[in-house]
Design goal:
The chain has a domain at 14-82. The chain is built from 7 helices and 14 strands. The chain has helices at residues 48-55, 118-140, 145-174, 190-193, 199-207, 210-224, 266-279, and strands spanning 14-18, 23-26, 30-35, 38-43, 59-69, 74-82, 93-98, 102-107, 110-115, 178-182, 228-231, 247-249, 254-257, 263-265. Strand 2 and strand 3 (30-35) form a beta hairpin. The longest helix is centred in the middle third of the chain and has 30 residues, at 145-174. The protein starts with 13 loop residues before the first strand and ends in a 20-residue tail after the last helix. The protein binds zinc ion.
Length: 299
């Protein structure tokens, strides 16, 4: 009918599904395909994605697809990877107390303090931004375009660095067990800063991003299939988990129990109290948790 440009149909792209007897992997670097002329071996140009999967324990599945790329005279393989995963069974609870410079995790009766120095990161970038602003305002006037650009870059760097710290810690923590976190409100730092007048300090605490750290742990936990429990955070570091008496804090987040006189680190107290709440104790009465046999002491 004259509607086609050519007198005969043409196959422009060929892709073939290969099942397990039409192809086989020869080691990790080449593949054999059954053709009308017998088996043909083709070597693979390895890419990073492929190697990453192999290194993480994924193995090639038996089905594959191959596409003929006529223009570049090459074959494109679509490979499927498979991995056996075991269902996760939690052995124990890990409680995590997140605050601005450190994160404490109670794992099998021992409290681990992981220093993040997030506030140092925040303060550092706060000063940098301030310096940049002063400099640019003097030259270009307030809210200039170059100033905005440099602001954006500084904020992005800050965010990236914090994200990296969070992910590393979250991965560390998530490996072992079920996780107990404080249930935080929309603006978790609010109750901590209402009596702080210094705007710089307020800023610092606000930026400490407790929620960000929690979100990182939560997401990692999901990835590993680890359950996460959220509990009421009220007074978790105020009361001694052994005696139920108030803890009197001095400097450096260290304090002493007003009844037993033993010394406590603030974050360790929080961890034990979170555990008690997760196990159904209220943290104020006599403890019922097994983990209390070995209280953590900070001399
Ligand atoms: Zn005590």
């Amino acid at each position: 009918m004259g509607r086609a440009r050519k007198p005969y149909p043409e196959v422009r792209s060929v892709s073939i599904w290969l099942d397990d007897h039409l192809w086989r992997a020869e080691g990790l670097t080449s593949i054999s395909i059954a053709t009308h002329k017998g088996w043909v071996e083709v070597s693979i140009e390895l890419n990073r994605h492929y190697l990453r999967y192999l290194n993480r324990g994924w193995r090639l599945a038996s089905e594959a697809k191959v596409k003929l790329d006529r223009r570049d005279r090459r074959l494109i393989f679509y490979l499927t990877f498979r991995k056996e995963v075991r269902e996760y069974r939690p052995k124990n609870y890990i409680t995590v107390d997140v605050n601005e410079n450190a994160e404490a995790a109670l794992i099998d009766g021992v409290v681990y303090l992981l220093e993040t120095d997030l506030s140092k990161v925040t303060l550092g970038y706060y000063y940098r931004r301030k310096r940049a602003q002063e400099k640019y305002d003097k030259v270009y006037g307030p809210c200039s375009r170059p100033a905005r650009r440099i602001f954006k870059r500084l904020s992005n760097n800050e965010r990236a660095l914090k994200r990296e710290i969070r992910w590393k810690l979250a991965t560390l923590i998530v490996r072992e067990a079920a996780i107990v976190l404080e249930r935080l409100g929309r603006e978790p730092a609010n109750h901590m800063i209402e009596h702080i007048k210094d705007p710089q300090l307020r800023h610092r605490i606000f930026q400490a991003a407790f929620k960000g750290m929690q979100r990182a742990i939560d997401e990692k936990a999901r990835e590993y299939g680890v359950p996460v429990i959220y509990v009421d955070p009220r007074n978790t570091s105020r009361v001694c988990p052994i005696h139920g008496a108030e803890i009197v804090y001095g400097k450096d987040r260290h304090g002493a129990c007003s009844k037993g006189g033993e010394t406590w680190h603030r974050d360790a107290v929080a961890c034990y109290n979170l555990l008690l709440r997760a196990l159904g104790g209220d943290g104020g009465a006599a403890p019922r948790a097994r983990a209390m046999e070995a209280p953590c002491r900070w001399a």
